[in-house]
């Protein structure tokens, strides 16, 4: 169990690293494109690179966001709920979130197979759409794993009002 | 069961899930998916889930979200955002209420870098509260001004609120950013006047700060130059058409990184932390947007917007009356719902009404974003108040809520002015 937990934590960290590197890559692409344009040589396919890397940036952070309770909640009633109910809600939210990410992974996987069959790609650089859809699926599954871990193992944090008042 | 009834039941279920503290995105995904399944079949629901998720995640316009968040995070860790406060502090700190006024200016400057109200309140809270405490400012004024000043982040461009509104209503991000400039300056000015008025009425609220020498003033101004350059380049670049919003965000982020590295205020570790934190925040915002693209078709399929539109038209309040009613609904909802969730939930219902009344969607965007801003300091949720509380642990929560009331009133005045004078929002975008 411990080894599995460690492995999952490693995957979550890796996912966040990939997303962060993706973001820095986007910054670099935009800067090179803008500077290049001023010298009459914009970066060919910059839009394609930004578009496809965006998938990695967005889904790369999902796992860490789930593990760190980063998803936005309306916690107006939280201080009034008994601790046991709050714990149960955490569990339900985790399972629900994981189910959503698995559903996303499954439907996008089906869509990726179709993209592969139709040879869909980006406009200029002809980057195969399916590659990024498969990446989205993998990162979604890691996000599902993170939410399950968060719900089952990690202790809950107190509400800011409980923490500070 | 009629589609309208299914839509209404979905809306109630959504509210219940939200109040049960199920994450906003998860609740919206669930209700949207089940709703479309009931109204249009499972295949339509799964098809939409796959297509919308990938389409949103690869939307190149939305890259401004992580880029502006990165810019704000790096500006925050390098202390760059503090410099404007220090420059304002050196100039007006010695007048009565001057430190609070400098805080407002600092918040405005940070807002122009980050687009996040929470980040503004947290950063300025850490910097300004200790200073105001040192000079015996009333905690009610000092905490109130930080909580309220922090909200400027959502109105002064670049603003995440405008980006979300633009995506949900298919408006131009650049035009919305420009539309927020004058209202942002107007609100900042009204905040300053509020501080000065409060201190004129009750001088003990904000005693005079330390006098600074000319060389100290000069040094403080020199320190603020990088932040001013970044603001001018990004906002000015969008206005003049030199940059698209995406390019402005990318160049702005690169610029703060370079300035941080050159001035040795940004080490590799804090840079990585800032970038990683930007990715996490992006994930949470983007997941809500994806969920919105699932719940919006459900709401449209249920014919709920048409029904609400018919109801509002039946009230026969006229264009301004209906607009004011909608804004009043936003103000009430803002007391209970998180701003982004409120935007995503209400726009599919109100937008058709707004368009049918011939109200400019850019103008409406500014008004809505301002009401979201008011929600950030409205009890009982008022997230910015909780943020300030986490920094000012000795000040009771009630005291902070009392402190924000004058600023909330200033926001209401701003809202009134923006409703009465649409040109305040529309003049700059019209010049683009």
TrEMBL record, chain A:
The yes or no answer to whether the keyword rRNA processing is present is: no
Enumerate the Gene Ontology biological process terms: C4-dicarboxylate transport
Q: Does the keyword Cell inner membrane apply?
A: yes
Q: Which domain of life is it from?
A: Bacteria
Segments forming a coiled coil: none
- Predominant location: membrane
Q: Which UniProt keywords apply?
A: Cell inner membrane, Cell membrane, Membrane, Transmembrane, Transmembrane helix, Transport
Q: Name one GO molecular function term.
A: transmembrane transporter activity
Q: Which GO terms describe its cellular component?
A: plasma membrane
Q: Where are the transmembrane segments?
A: 12-32, 44-67, 88-109, 129-149
- In what way does this protein cross or attach to the membrane? Multi-pass membrane protein
Annotated ranges, domain Tripartite ATP-independent periplasmic transporters DctQ component: 27-151
Q: Which Pfam families match?
A: DctQ
Q: Where in the cell is it found?
A: Cell inner membrane
Give the multimer and partner information.
Answer: The complex comprises the extracytoplasmic solute receptor protein and the two transmembrane proteins.
Its annotated function is as follows: Part of the tripartite ATP-independent periplasmic (TRAP) transport system.
Family per record:
Belongs to the TRAP transporter small permease family.
Name used for this protein in its record: TRAP transporter small permease protein
Read off the lineage from the record. Bacteria, Pseudomonadati, Pseudomonadota, Alphaproteobacteria, Rhodobacterales
């Amino acid at each position: 169990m411990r080894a599995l937990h460690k492995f999952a934590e490693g995957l979550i960290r890796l996912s966040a690293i990939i997303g962060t590197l993706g973001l820095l890559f986007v910054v670099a692409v935009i800067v090179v494109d803008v500077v290049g344009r001023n010298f009459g040589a914009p970066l060919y396919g910059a839009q394609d690179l930004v578009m496809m890397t965006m998938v990695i940036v967005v889904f790369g952070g999902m796992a860490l966001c789930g593990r760190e309770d980063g998803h936005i909640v309306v916690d107006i009633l939280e201080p009034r709920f008994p601790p046991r109910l709050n714990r149960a809600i955490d569990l339900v939210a985790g399972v629900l979130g994981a189910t959503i990410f698995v559903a996303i992974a499954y439907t996008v996987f089906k869509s990726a197979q179709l993209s592969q069959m139709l040879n869909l790609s980006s406009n200029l650089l002809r980057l195969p759409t399916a590659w990024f859809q498969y990446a989205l699926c993998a990162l979604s599954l890691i996000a599902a794993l993170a939410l399950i871990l968060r719900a089952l193992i990690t202790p809950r944090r107190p509400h800011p009002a409980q923490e500070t008042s | 069961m009629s589609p309208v009834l299914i839509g209404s039941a979905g809306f109630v279920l959504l509210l219940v899930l939200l109040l049960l503290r199920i994450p906003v995105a998860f609740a919206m995904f669930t209700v949207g998916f089940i709703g479309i399944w009931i109204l249009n079949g499972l295949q339509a629901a799964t098809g939409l889930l796959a297509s919308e998720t990938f389409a949103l995640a690869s939307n190149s316009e939305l890259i401004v979200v992580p880029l502006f968040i990165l810019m704000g995070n790096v500006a925050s860790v390098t202390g760059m955002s503090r410099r404007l406060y220090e420059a304002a502090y050196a100039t007006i700190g010695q007048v009565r209420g001057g430190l609070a006024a400098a805080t407002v200016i600092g918040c405005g400057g940070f807002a122009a870098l980050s687009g996040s109200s929470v980040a503004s309140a947290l950063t300025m809270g850490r910097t300004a509260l200790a200073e105001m405490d040192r000079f015996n400012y009333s905690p009610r004024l000092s905490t109130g001004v930080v909580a309220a000043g922090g909200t400027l982040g959502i109105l002064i461009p670049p603003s995440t609120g405008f980006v979300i509104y633009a995506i949900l209503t298919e408006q131009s991000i650049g035009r919305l950013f420009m539309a927020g400039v004058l209202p942002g300056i107007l609100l900042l000015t009204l905040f300053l006047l509020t501080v000065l008025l409060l201190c004129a009425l009750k001088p003990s609220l904000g005693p005079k700060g330390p006098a600074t020498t000319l060389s100290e003033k000069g040094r403080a101004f020199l320190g603020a130059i990088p932040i001013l350059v970044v603001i001018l380049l990004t906002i000015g670049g969008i206005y003049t058409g030199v940059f698209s919003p995406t390019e402005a965000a990318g160049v702005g982020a690169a610029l703060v990184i370079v300035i941080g590295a050159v001035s040795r205020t940004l080490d590799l570790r804090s840079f990585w932390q800032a970038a990683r934190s930007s990715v996490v925040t992006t994930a949470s915002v983007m997941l809500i947007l994806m969920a919105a693209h699932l719940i919006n078709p459900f709401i449209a399929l249920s014919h709920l917007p048409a029904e609400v539109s018919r109801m509002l038209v039946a009230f026969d309040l006229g264009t301004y009356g209906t607009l004011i009613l909608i804004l009043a609904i936003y103000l009430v909802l803002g007391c209970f719902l998180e701003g982004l969730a409120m935007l995503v939930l209400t726009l599919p219902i109100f937008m058709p009404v707004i368009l049918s009344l011939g109200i400019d969607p850019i103008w409406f965007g500014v008004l809505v974003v301002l009401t979201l801003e008011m929600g950030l300091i409205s009890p009982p949720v008022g997230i910015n108040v909780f943020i300030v509380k986490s920094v000012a642990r000795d000040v009771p929560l009630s005291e902070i809520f009392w402190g924000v009331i004058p600023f909330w009133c200033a926001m209401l005045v701003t809202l009134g002015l923006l409703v009465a004078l649409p040109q305040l929002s529309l003049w700059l975008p019209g010049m683009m």
